[in-house]
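Escalated from tier 1: magnesium ion holo job.
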Amino acid sequence: MSKWVYSFGAGHNEGKAEMRNLLGGKGANLAEMASIGLPVPPGFTITTEVCTYYYDHGKQYPSELRDQVGEALARVEAAVGTKFGDTHKPLLVSVRSGARVSMPGMMDTVLNLGLNDRTVEGLAAASGDARFAWDSYRRFIQMFGGVVLGIDHHRFEEIIEHVKLDRGVIEDTELTAQDWHRVVDGCKEMVAEVKGQPFPQHPQDQLWAAIGAVFGSWMNPRANTYRRLHDIPANWGTAVNVQAMVFGNMGEDCATGVCFTRDPSTGENIFYGEYLINAQGEDVVAGIRTPQPMSKARAKPGERSMEEAMPGAYQELVKVRETLERHYTDMQDIEFTVQQNKLYMLQTRNGKRTAAASLKIAVDMAREGLIDEKEAIKRVNPAALDQLLHPTLDPKAPRKLLSKGLPASPGAACGTVVFSADEAEARAAKGENVILVRIETSPEDIHGMHAAKGILTTRGGMTSHAAVVARGMGRPCVAGAGGVTVDYGAQALAAGGQIVRAGETITLDGATGEIFIGPVAMVEPQLSGDFATLMEWADKVRRLRVRTNAETPLDADTARKFGAEGIGLCRTEHMFFDPARIGAVRQMIMSETESGRREALSRLLPFQRQDFAELFRIMAGLPVTIRLLDPPLHEFLPHSEAEIAEVASSLGTDVVTMQRRAQELSEANPMLGHRGCRLGISYPEIYEMQARAIFEAAVQIAKETGKAPVPEIMIPLVATRRELEITKAQVDKVAQEVFAESGHHVEYYVGTMIELPRACLTADRIAEVGDFFSFGTNDLTQTTFGLSRDDAGKFLPLYVEKGIMPKDPFVSIDPDGVGALVRIAKEKGRAVKPDLKLGICGEHGGDPASIQFCEEAGLDYVSCSPYRVPVARLAAAQAALSGGGTDRTA
Ligand code: ADP
Ligand code: MG
Ligand code: MG
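Tier 2 regenerated the structure:
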C-alpha cells in the first residue's frame, strides 16, 4: 500500500528536509524543524505524488487517501486536544500549498478551516474572545470564497467597507464582535447568491474542497507562468500541508511575522524582518497595517520593535534563529506566529538574497565556522558577481522610468545624451559623463563607446555589436530598446510621449535594461574585503588559469586588477581602427602594389610597436597572446560617400578608383572569405610588420624592465597544416632578424586559433607545427552550426524557446557538437605534443557553464573580457570543486 500522507509535529515526524521532492519544500522543512525540537504546530503533508496522480487520473485521488488523511487528522486532534468540527473546542487547520521549490505567492492557502455557524460559537467560548472568533470566521469565508469558490476578493471587501461606513469607523481594528458577525452574515449571503448554494458548513466538505483547490492552483495561470519562467516541470506537482492553526490575532500578546536570519539585501548578520501584533497570516505582507521591525536596533522613532514589545517571545525567536542557521548552515527566511506569548514556527526556507548579500553571507559563514571555504565558494553564483563589479543604482534613490530595453551589459551609468561617437569622445575628453545613444553601433563607434559611461541602442539583441563590445569594455549597456525612437537630425530621443534632447541627462541600468530620465544616485562596487577574500579562496582551489581578452592598456590594466594571469587574446584589428591610424590602414588596403602596401605598413609599425610595448609592460612577464590581423580588409574601408571622398583625396586618388577598389574587396560572404591567415598568406607583408612590431616591443621591454615578456603569436583561421607552416616561417624569420639586429633574444611561441572544424579534425598535423592552440569558440560555433552570429537573432530565441537548442550556443558552449570538436582537437593535439598548451578565448571564456566544460575537457586556461575575470576565477574554482576531469593525457 502506498503512503500518501506524512505526519509532522507533536513528536511524530515522518518526513525530513531531504524529502522535499515528495513533501514539497514547506512540508519537508516543517517536518525537519519539528524533528530538531522547534515549536511547530502539528499537521500532515499530502505528497506531491498525490498531485501527479490527481492530474494523471482525471482529477481523482488514490483510493487510500481518505483513510490516510483521516488517521493523520486524528493524530493532530489528539496532539492538540481538540476535535475537528467539535462545537465546544473545535480544531481549526490551515490548508497550505507547497511545491519542491518555493513559488512565492503563486498558489493559495486557506486559514481557519473548520469554522461554521456552530463551531464559531465554540471558538468564542473556548477563547473567551467573541471578536477574535468572528474575525477568524470572516477571514476563513473570505479565503475559502476566493481560493476555493473563485469569488473576487472585492466582493468581500465591499461588505467590510459597508459595515465600517455604517459604524462610522476607519480601521478594521475598531470593529467589534457584532460587526464581524454582520460581515460574516453579509459574506454568506453574497456567496449563496453568487454560487446558488449556501457556504459549506461541514468541516469535512471544507477540508476536501480546500485540498482540491490547492491541487487545482498548481495549474492556475499565475503558477503556470512562474513555472515557465523558472524552468519548473509541471509534473513535479505540489504537496498540500494541513496544519493545526495557531492564532496571532487573539489579542495584544499575539503576533505574526516574517523574517530573515540575516539582512537579505546587504547580508549583514542581523535579525531582519517585520511583525504585527494581533494579526494573522498574510496581514504582514498585505499592507493594510504597517508592520514593525524585529530588533530594537532597527526601530525608527515611533516604531515598536518585537524585542521591546514581546521580549520573551523575541528571545526565544533569537534562539530559533541560531538553531536554524546552525542546522541548515544557510540564511533562512522564516514565518512565525506568537499566540499568547508562545512562539510557533510556521515555515523556513533558504532565503533569497541579492548578489552582495550572497557574497557577504558566504564569507561570513565560513569565518563563523558554519561552513568551510570550499562551501563558501560554491554558495556564490558567479553570474551574480558580475553585478558587484559595476556601480549599481542605489535601491533607495528616487527615479523616473522612461522606457526599457534588453539588459545587455551590467552596471549603471548616468550622463548626458550624445548621438555620435565623435561627440561622445569630444565631450568625454572635457571630463563630461556621456551616454552614447545610437540606433545601432558598428566598429567605427568603438572610440565613442569607450569614451561613454554607458550605451543605449534601439535595435539589436543580446549579441549585437553594442552588447558584445560593451560587455567586453565593462560599459553598462541597454540594447534593443524598441520603445525608444532616435532622431539623429533632431538630436532627440522619444519614448512614450516623452522627449529627451542631446545634452540632457539619462540613467541606464544595464542589469535590468531600464532607462530613466535624469540622474539616479549610485553605489560604487567594493573590490576589497569579502570580495577579495572569496577570490583568494577560489584561487587556492582552481586548476584552470584565467587570462583576459584585451587590446588596450586600460583593459589590460583593469584585467590585472581583477586578477588576470596574462592575455589570452589581443585582437590587433582593433588597433587598426584607431582614428590616428585608419588613414595609413586605408592606404595599405588601397594600394595595388606590394611596395605601396609596405610603405603604408612602415607608417603603422611604430604605432603597433608602442601598443605591444604597453601591453607587455602591464603584463610584466605574463604570457601575452597576440592574434595577427583577422578580419577581411573591406571592414576598414570608409562607408559614406563623404568618407570615401575624404580618403580618396588624402591618398591622392579619385573617388572612382576608390569605389572600384572597394568593390574588388567586397565579398559575397566575408565571414567565410578572404580573412585570417588567408590574408597573411596573400599579403605576407602585413603579418611581417605585425611580427616585427611584436618582437621589437618585446626586446625593448626586456631590456628596459629586465622582465622579458613571453609573446604567443597566434595565427587565425587555420584550416590546414600548410597554412600554419607558411605563416609561422614568416614570423620565425622576422624574429631572427630582430634578434640579430638588437643582439637580444626573447622566448616566444607561435600557435594557432582553432576555429574551424577541419582544424579540429586534423589537429594532430597542425600540432606538429604549432606550439599552442587557443579555441576561438565564437567562430568555431558559427562554422560548426553553419550559423552566422549576426543573423542568428532572427530565429535563435525561438529555437531556445521551443527547446530545439537548450541554450544560445554563442553564450554557452554547445557541449555535444562544438565541445566534441574541442575534445577531438585536444586529443589529437596532445597525442603529438603532450605539453601542447590549450586555451579558450571568445565570449564563452567568461560563461560559467562553458568554464565547467573547459575544466572537464582538461584545457589549461580560459580567457575572457576584463570584467568577467573574477567571474571566471570563481567559476573555475567551482568547476574544480565539482570534480571536473583533470585528464591531461592524450
Ligand atoms: P505562502 O506560501 O504564500 O507563504 P503559507 O502557506 O506559508 O503561504 O501561508 C500563508 C500565511 O498563513 C503565512 O503568513 C503563514 O505563516 C500563515 N499560516 C499558515 N499556516 C498557519 C497556521 N497553521 N497557523 C497560523 N498561521 C498560519
Ligand atoms: Mg509562507
Ligand atoms: Mg575568429
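Residues 335, 347 surround magnesium ion (ligand 2) (CB under 6 Å).
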